[in-house]
Every structure is written in C-alpha cells, then in structure tokens.
Amino acid sequence: MQLLGAPIAEQPLVLELVAAGGPALSSLVFSALVLAPLGEELFFRGLLFRRVAHRAGMWPALATSALLFAVFHGNIHGLVIYLWLGLVFAGAYVATGRLACAIAVHFGNNAITLIALLTERSSGGQG
Q1: DSSP alpha helices (H): ranges in 1-127?
Q2: Going residue by residue through the chain (127 aa), what tens digit of pLDDT does each one get?
Q3: How far is 112 from 92, CA to CA, in rounded Å?
Q4: Cα–Cα distance between 127 and 124 in angstroms, integer?
Q5: What is the DSSP letter of 31?
C-alpha cells in the first residue's frame, strides 16, 4: 500500500498495547497468536464461508467472507489489506480443505506483524 501512496495505519489499540509493554503486550500477543486465528477462522471460514459456499458457490463465499473479515477489523486505512488477507486465508482453506491450514496462515501473518511492531518499538520507531 505504501508503494501506491496509501500507507496503512495499524489499529490504534494495537499500537497502544505494544507501547505499554508488560501485561498489556502479553495479552496482545495471546490475542493475536491464539484467539484471533482460532476465533476468526472458525467464524469467517468455518461457518460463514461454508454456509455461503453451500448456498451460493465458492466465488460468493470468497468475496463475502473476505469483505466481512475486512470490515470486522474496523480499520478503514487497512481495508484493502484486510480484504486481501481474508482472500488469502480463504484460499488456504479452499486449497487444502482444512480449517487448520487457514488458522496456521492467519497465525503466521499475525506473528510476522507482531515481530515487525516489536522490532520497530525496540528500535525507537514511532509506529
């Protein structure tokens, strides 16, 4: 997005928790690496995607689950990124037929994002 001249802003609460450190950061790490991948994939791919795919087909299921995933995050500046991620996670599910794969890809994305935020924090970046 930055290459297109539209830098995204991380969700403000995430930045606050990273800056706070300690227990706040620990809760963010647990939420980002355990709760979000499990909960979001169970809902958006395990429930929503499956239902829409059963009723309307794979393409509507991909579009619906990705769009609602993006809107759910409430970050207008990151809408395109979250839409893309929703498609990637759904694609992992479709390609393998396993929800665990979508959960693992979601976990990996969140882990990389956390590492980047923590690296920026430790180097004195502003976020």
Answers
A1: 12-20, 22-30, 36-41, 50-56, 58-72, 79-96, 99-122
A2: 455 555 555 667 777 777 888 898 899 899 999 999 999 999 999 999 999 999 999 999 999 999 999 999 888 888 889 999 999 999 999 999 999 999 999 999 999 989 988 887 777 655 4
A3: 17
A4: 9
A5: I
Contact 32, 107 (CB under 8 A): no
Nearest to 87 by CA among 37, 33, 31, 49: 49
Q: Residue 59 CA to chain centroid, in angstroms?
A: 20
The answer to whether 42 and 93 are in contact (CB under 8 A) is: no
For 69, the token pair is 């995933």
CB count in 10 Å sphere of residue 59: 10
Amino acid at 56: A
Contact present, 24 and 17 (Cβ < 8 Å): yes
